[in-house]
Amino acid sequence: MNIDNSLTSRKNVLIxxxxxxxxxxxxxxxxxxxxxxxxxxxxxxIEIQHGTQRDRTWLGLDTLLGVQKVRxxxxxxxxxxxxxxxxxxxxxxxxxxxxxxxxxxxxxGDQWAETRQFRRALLRRANYFTYWKRHGVPVYLLxxxxxxxxxxxxxxxVAAENSRxxxxxxxxxxxxxxxxxxxxxxxxxxxxxxxxxxxxGYRPTDSRVLAFEGAVPIVPNWNIxxxxxxxxxTAYLDTLEGYVRAIRDRGERVYxxxxxxxxxRELLEQIRGRVKEFDIVTPRxxxxxxxxxxxxxxxxxxxxxxxxxxxxxxxxxxxxxxxHKYKWLAEDFGASELVQDPFAGGAIASETLDYMFAANSxxxxxxxxxxIARKGDAARMWEVIVDDLSSIGMSKNT
Length: 398
What we know:
This protein is α/β, with parallel strands linked by helices. The longest helix is centred in the last third of the chain and has 32 residues, at 360-391. The radius of gyration is 22 Å and the shape is globular. The chain has helices at residues 5-8, 23-40, 53-58, 80-88, 116-134, 153-161, 171-180, 207-210, 222-227, 232-249, 261-275, 286-294, 304-311, 324-332, 349-358, 360-391; strands at 12-16, 43-47, 62-64, 99-102, 139-144, 165-168, 189-191, 216-219, 254-257, 280-281, 299-301, 317-320, 339-340. It starts with a helix and ends in a 7-residue tail after the last helix. Helix 5 runs parallel beside helix 6 (153-161), helix 10 (232-249) packs across helix 11 (261-275) and helix 12 packs across helix 13. The protein is built from 16 helices and 13 strands. It folds into two domains: 5-196 and 374-391, Rossmann fold; 207-373, Rossmann fold. Strand 4 (99-102), helix 5 (116-134) and strand 5 (139-144) form a beta-alpha-beta unit.
């Protein structure tokens, strides 16, 4: 009987921080899983608490039997009975993990540390990397936003110091990391753009979604409304309403694209209450949203990964943000002038759209050229990780 030796020598890489609810988290999960297979020849693994078995099977992900919340992280054990049980269950165990890549996106910063409860949660997340390092498993923090750290420095410091490489998406994030990790070798802190730029979109099969190919999407973010001062949530709706009306005045079709869950949809419902006959579309996942965004003449968005999806495909985008990561995203794609105050109201919409359509060819070309460069940067980031893993004995399966 012939046995495929690659099955017994297969490497397993755990992906943490991604998921199936937030479309940005989904895109990062899929992008990481794709590169783990193609560049490392390894099997991507996700923890059991994320998604359903059907979700994980659809993406070809194995399941780690270990739940952080109850601090249950089985390593397989040394007793015969544990080995027998382990080999009969459809799970990967902690002792089977060869490396960890974290795709949290934006977890370590004061925005999530406003209460003691959240600060404890951040520290638990960071201590998970301590656990893996203690067991000899290398951890890599893939490109994400970091800081500021007036409230969350302890957790961020633990996370960085227990990772072999930490990639910041932007200059501010890199500087914040340097401030709290002054003793960390500079070779372990790197800068690289969001890595979902390498991921293509997926054409939807649902005709109700396909019907909006080529139309202009409005992609809100409830975080913008919530983090503003009193009265600014209304100003944010005024801004989005202004864009809907200005887009219609130009003879373009416009619709609402829900990129994350119930609270984003509630914002779109409020806009529909103001402008009437405003369709709301929720694609099945981030890959379908990315395809749809790529067909638009322009995009208006406050969701970071909706903006990455559009800009990576050369689509000019009005950028509404609530943290430093949005400003630097615009810099990455040579489109700093498209960053706008989300609370400015609707009066600026017509002027902005006039500029975007008048400069469309040059603007698209500038963004498209930047997108090529960012994809090259992301590919080099993976090459650095592959080289580092090879230096510690984890080479690509053959």
